[in-house]
Design brief:
There is one protein chain. The protein is an alpha/beta fold. The chain folds into two domains: 13-80 and 399-451, Urease, subunit C, domain 1, CATH 2.30.40.10; 81-389, Metal-dependent hydrolases (TIM Barrel, Alpha-Beta Barrel), CATH 3.20.20.140. The protein is built from 14 helices and 22 strands. It has helices at residues 122-138, 154-160, 190-208, 229-242, 254-264, 268-274, 303-310, 318-322, 331-337, 352-367, 375-389, 422-430, 456-472, 484-487, and strands at 13-14, 17-18, 21-34, 39-51, 54-59, 68-71, 75-79, 81-86, 141-148, 164-171, 174-177, 185-188, 215-217, 220-221, 246-250, 282-286, 313-316, 340-343, 406-410, 435-440, 443-447, 450-451. Strands 3, 4, 5, 6, 7, 19, 20, 21 and 22 form a nine-stranded mixed beta sheet that branches. Helix 1 (122-138) crosses helix 13, helix 3 (190-208) runs parallel beside helix 4 (229-242) and helix 10 (352-367) packs across helix 11 (375-389). The longest helix is centred in the middle third of the chain and has 19 residues, at 190-208. The radius of gyration is 23 Å and the shape is globular. Bound molecules: zinc ion. Zinc ion is lined by residues 85, 87, 147, 249, 285, 346.
């Protein structure tokens, strides 16, 4: 419907004409951004108006021209969530396989002998990416950081899902190997690491030229223990040349912690500090095994301070670790120390709302303190915290001038009822079930709970087939030639096995 064109703000124009104006009218609850207080706060019964790719108005009584009107009287409106760490091209294949998967002889980490048993081709990766973006959009994510080894069609497929994304091409100087399942060998090829860095720069620059305008890049030297100091330094220089952030895994397992203390005599975080890697243009996933983690038994308490003082970002992905019995022990200490924090899904499910729930609950379990982190602090990490890590003050918040990355939650959904505090109802109970609409860059990509950009029936069929092929070949990717079923038996005895190689 259209309002009186003479009575309100003039719509913005774009290269193709006037921008589309969408009004979410009289929104019952809104998590709006209070710039002065630097916090989200609740507002009630206001109009949220999207003008093109920006938020044009936030307040009562908008009476400017409108192209599309949405009744907000039974909606909670919040900023799009930011998933700062995911591997969407490969993780969806692993559902049913890696939930109870940690290697007890590697301090519960699955990384070194089994995490890469299921492999797929570029077609399978594109399917996985589409599936994961469908999940993320359904859980209110509008921005995602995708760490993948480059493959054919990566950028085009990502752009097609309608999400805003940072492509992080991964590479390393070494890969992990094991001959016995309880110790890690590093197979080094330093020249190859340097060559892959050059290729990653090309991939990143190409992504930034994508016509969607929604793709950006970072550089992803894969892990602190698989990259030489030279590769990390060259990566940092290349990232700075291009205005990009550097994103690597560090302090993600006790095996890695012990390897780095063996090599250097200091913790992974301290070594990163010593070589000049830490800083506002560096993100570490997952920064769990620091000198304050009880498993490491390392003297001193300096790692969290180094992270905070340097402005280094931490991508916190609690779910995948918790399934294997690992936890970042005092998230509240990170928050109160001033560590710049974002939240990521890392593996499946690509469900940010469930990840946020786990971030809150696991922090309280690990400390025995309900006050360890609050729901508001977790919401901040999943929105403005992630935006800060991405260097994007126009994301993660509902404010005039910010990007129109907006999520609508159906307050009438039974899982949201009764309504008192919609954010708590969403995070602790309803999760993705109550997400009704999502806008990215002002484009309506989830409507009535349906993702408009992904043909989910075709994608799930393709995903099943890619998964089945991957598991048929799994034994070839295990050091002792064990099958997928031997490494990860089904959760109950019996069951049909036609899709599982024995
Ligand atoms: Zn990761």
């Amino acid at each position: 419907m259209s309002g009186d064109p003479g009575s309100g703000p003039t719509p913005a124009t774009t290269a193709t004409g006037p921008a589309t104006v969408t009004r979410i009218a009289k929104a019952a609850w809104v998590a709006a951004w209070d710039e002065d207080a630097a916090t989200h706060h609740y507002l009630n019964d206001i109009d949220v108006v999207l003008v093109g790719d920006r938020i044009g108005h936030l307040g009562p009584g908008y009476d400017g021209p409108v192209d599309a009107d949405i009744d907000g009287r039974d909606r909670f409106v919040m900023p799009g969530l930011i998933d700062v760490h995911a591997h969407p091209s490969t993780e969806p294949l692993k559902k049913g396989f890696r939930e109870e998967f940690g290697n007890p002889r590697m301090y519960m980490s699955p990384l070194y002998d089994r995490a890469f048993m299921l492999q797929t081709d570029a077609a399978g990766q594109r399917i996985g990416l589409q599936y994961a973006m469908w999940e993320l959009l359904r859980s209110g994510v509008t921005s995602v950081v995708d760490l993948s080894f480059p493959y054919e069609g990566w950028a085009e497929t990502m752009a097609g899902t309608g999400v805003r994304a940072w492509l992080v091409p991964s590479y390393a100087s070494a890969h992990w190997s094991t001959g016995d399942g309880h110790s890690v060998d590093y197979i080094w090829d330093e020249a190859r690491g340097m060559a892959l860095l050059d290729e990653a720069v090309v991939v990143g620059r190409s992504a930034e030229r994508d016509p969607s305008g929604r793709l950006s890049a970072m550089l992803g030297p894969a892990q602190i223990d698989t990259c030489t100091e030279e590769l990390l330094a060259a990566s940092q220089a290349a990232a700075r040349d291009n205005g990009w952030t550097l994103h690597t895994h560090a302090a993600q397992s006790l095996v890695e912690f012990q390897e780095m203390t063996r090599r250097h005599g200091v913790t992974p975080v301290q070594w990163a500090s010593e070589i000049g890697l830490l800083g506002p243009d560096c993100i570490l996933a997952h920064a769990i095994f620091t000198d304050e983690h009880s498993w490491t038994r390392w003297p001193g308490r300096t790692d969290v301070r180094l992270l905070a003082d340097s402005g280094t970002g931490v991508a916190h992905c609690p779910g995948v670790f918790a399934r294997n019995g690992q936890v970042l022990e005092d998230l509240g200490h990170y928050v109160r120390s001033g560590v710049r924090l974002g939240i990521g899904t890392d593996s499946f499910p690509h469900n940010m709302l469930e990840e946020m729930r786990q971030a809150a609950i696991l922090a309280r379990v690990a400390t025995g303190d309900v006050g360890s982190v609050t729901t508001g602090e977790v919401f901040a990490a999943a929105t403005v915290g992630g935006a800060d890590l991405l260097g994007r003050p126009d994301l993660g918040r509902l404010a005039v001038g910010a990007k129109a990355d907006v999520v609508l939650v159906d307050l009438t959904h039974p899982a949201m009822q009764p309504v008192r505090d919609p954010l708590r109802s969403l995070v602790y109970t309803a999760a993705d079930r109550a997400v009704s609409d999502v806008f990215v860059d002002g484009r309506h990509v989830v409507a009535g709970g349906q993702v408009t950009t992904v043909d989910i029936e075709a994608v799930t069929a393709g995903l099943q087939s890619a998964r089945d092929r991957a598991e048929a070949g799994a034994a070839a990717n295990h050091f002792a030639g064990r099958s997928g079923l031997q490494v990860s038996p089904l959760s109950l005895p019996g069951g049909r096995s036609r899709r599982i190689a024995r």
